[in-house]
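In this supplementary section we document a worked example of the pipeline. Step one takes a protein sequence of length 114 as its only input; no multiple sequence alignment statistics are reported here. Step two produces a three-dimensional model, which step three serialises into structure tokens for compact storage. The input and output of this example are shown verbatim.
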Amino acid sequence: MFEEPNVKTLNHKFKIAHDAEGYVEDYTSEPATKKEIDNAIKDLKKNKHEFMAIGRSCWECNGAHIHLIDMPAMNCFSCGRIYHNGIDITDYTGSKYEKSTHIKRNEKNKTTST
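The serialised model returned by step three reads:
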């Protein structure tokens, strides 16, 4: 990895923002739910999307790449994040970024007894 990922947007879902004329202006993001991330991972596996052979940097590393947000199966060569259709599906478990993400992948379902 060459760039440190933006820890404020780990495991977020990203959307292209258009201006009044419909041109790509910027992008927005919000935290993805664990279910959204899990569904994106299932879709990635189910549809057997292939990652690009030629690496590209993501829109977080290079603002000129906003048009790649909706791309399936993207792995940023610069920061190492993995995206599927605009969702950061990277598993940060065990990495130095684990404490910065809102997704806890190792949480067991808690049940309450009555």
